[in-house]
Amino acid sequence: MTTSVAPLDLVRQEVDRSLREFLDRQRPMFGDPHLAALLSAATDFLAGGKRLRPAFCYWGWRAAGGGEEPGLYAAAASLELLQASALVHDDVMDASDVRRGMPSAHRRFERMHADAGWHGSAGQFGEGAAVLLGNLLLVWSGQMWRGSGLDPRALAAAQPVHDHMLTELMCGQYLDLLEQARGENTFDSALRVALYKSGKYSVEQPLRLGLVLAARGPDPYIDRLCAQYGQQVGIAFQLRDDVLGVFGDPAETGKPAGDDLREGKRTMLIARTLAEASPAQAAAVRDLLGDPALDEEGVERLRTVIEETGALAACEGMIKQYLDEALAALDHAPIEETARAALAALAVAATARRT
User: Fold this and answer.
1) What is the pTM of this model?
2) pLDDT tens digit string along 13-44?
3) 3 state SS of 102
């Protein structure tokens, strides 16, 4: 495995197949034509995504000596259902209009209500339907995990990791809401959100799931690898996402340029900006950040302040530092060599600059 693309592409193909087969098995439950819109929204939403979380799970499995096992792809694919659930709910909480280049789920259902001329509030219907869709995806995630076909002993060994990951995700979502409400935005608070909202469930815990599934239980080297490689890559991954949320190309991110600024995301990028800003710059950030009507001129003004204060360069430096430390830890881990190369490539792909 010599390229940064191959480890991800290999997993993506099998994960996509597993998701299609799972959705096909659900179709009889949606025979009532009134339910067609719900299944259609789930299907469309699951068609997107880079499949990074399943990839870290798969290569964790291989790292611990696991071989080719069809059930592993299904177990790993269940993480995409979890991710989809989190994104649908996240968009409701952030009032986001777009996700993966399409209307966010609540906007999709809102438009359906408005176009049909139904009674009541279209916005309330859209949010309610999206909450239910997110819940459905979460239920399906557990169903796909349990029905993956893996050895029940392996699933039982990894179940505590799976349960812990779900709890961490919900705690991270709450911390994100809390920091926006409090407006604290210190380095520590931004790093805490980066770790719990995304870092742990995007990299560390999927990796741990794969390792524990193959090893049939915990092992000290698993904890070391997940802390020294998984957490570092996970934080770097979220920092990269924060940068893309401000400077990214909408064609790449699937969201409008500067959307994180309109939503008032209290990221490390903003924390570093405020820490180094002049009084005038800080006033501009506080005045513009979190304005839902922020136009392109306002987005550009905030981008300029972020760059002028050195916050962008500082975050790029942090991403590089976390990545370098993760790759160094990977070099010394007692894992299978093909998986070592694949995990190194995945770390680079997950944190690569795409602006």
Assistant:
1) 0.93
2) 999 999 999 999 999 999 999 999 999 999 99
3) strand
